[in-house]
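2 proteins. here.
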Amino acid sequence: MSEEANTIRKALLNLGYRKGGKVRVYYKALNRSEVFVDNSRIGIFDFARNAFVD
């Protein structure tokens, strides 16, 4: 698993999401990724801030 994937996984666990959900990540510009869990949009993760910004 890549470092970026681990970072997103840890952030989701901190938000209360548990293992078992289907996670999709779409990489965007400016070091950000849009994250979905079980087809529900969670938000945009900013790697510079190490947090969800939207």
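next one coming up
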Amino acid sequence: ARPELQETCQAIAAITTEVSAGIQPQRKSILFSTATTSSHHDEGGDDKEKISVTFVNKDGTEKTISVPVGMSMLEAAHENDIELEGACEGSLACSTCHVIVMDVKDYNKLEDPTDEENDMLDLAFGLTETSRLGCQVIAKPELDGVRLALPAATRNFAVDGFVPKPH
């Protein structure tokens, strides 16, 4: 067995164990997110604050990238050639950008998922207590160092090599 894959499985199992042990993801009372994203970058946007995000692929390999504060994880994945589909282009109409936040503490730093996001997550394969849609996870300073696992399977909508881009 490959060590990277074992580590990914162990991390996801640890999340499940934490939840089983009573360390539940905290639910806040916010009913909607005021976070916005934009795929339009300011000229000279390199001076924007960035955070470190590690994507853990289904085969256990990892890729750590710098993500500007305010950008969605879906956009960040697309800009860095990480295979996170996003068939609806970030319009909250599918579950193909499903990610698993690997640390419950990081999950608890996120805004609560909206009812619309929860409806889409219900369609995702491999749903966990810390699952989110990548288009709804927005980079912010307190998420620096976050690790996101890509699930082993997704409902793939891509056809003929089409790679959707968030709006």
